[in-house]
Amino acid sequence: METSGQAGGKDRHFGIVVDDRSPVRDLVTGGRQAAPGPFLDFVDPGATRVEVVDYADIQFTKAPHVCAAWG
User: Fold this and answer.
1) Rounded Cα gap, residues 53 and 22, in angstroms
2) Can you give the pTM of this predicted structure?
3) 10-70 — its CATH code?
């Protein structure tokens, strides 16, 4: 989808939750080595950062220090 007047990609971001990141990693990297680390983030052709999260890694409750900071 093409739009006009949107801010640059550095401020655009969304996440997708999947059951298994492995097939997504293969599609995104196209056979190239993926960036090291536990995350699977990539930038789409429209300069939007896409974060792919494994369902097993979803944190349904916030850590106590986060809740305390929220008051």
Assistant:
1) 11
2) 0.58
3) 3.30.720
